[in-house]
Specification:
With 126 residues, the chain is mainly β. The protein has no helices and 8 strands. Strand 7 and strand 8 form a beta hairpin.
């Protein structure tokens, strides 16, 4: 799936993180982005986008609690019935907040704001 992520916005499908928005940028295979909202005061990511649309990146964030977290993520895209990109993310945190999990991000269409999602108990927090 050939995807250009430049300017696309995503929100997590995770209870408590409904207000988080990630904005991605892309130049060739170079990918970077920033996110705010939910439990994150500010976060950023940098990595690569592959020809198949998958993403590989490092991320860091400062949470509302003041915790500083960093990690690695690999995302696999698919399209939902509405034509939105859904990213299935396998992530790993490093350091004293070490953890691993899977989460899901859903594309926001232009002009769309994040909405409250239903609980996603089968997904761990990102």
């Amino acid at each position: 799936m050939l995807i250009n992520y430049d300017g696309r916005r995503f929100r997590p499908q995770l209870e408590g993180e409904e207000g988080r928005v990630a904005t991605y940028h892309q130049d060739g295979d170079l990918l970077w982005g920033e996110f705010t909202g939910g439990l994150a005061r500010r976060g950023s990511l940098a990595g690569r986008a592959s020809a198949d649309g998958s993403l590989e990146f490092a991320y860091c964030m400062v949470r509302d609690s003041g915790e500083v977290i960093s990690g690695y993520c690999r995302s696999i895209p698919r399209l939902d019935d509405e034509g939105r990109i859904v990213l299935e993310e396998a992530w790993e945190r490093y350091g004293r907040h070490a953890a691993r999990g899977v989460s899901r991000l859903v594309e926001l269409f232009p002009g769309e704001e994040p909405v409250t999602t239903s609980p996603a108990s089968d997904y761990l927090e990102f």
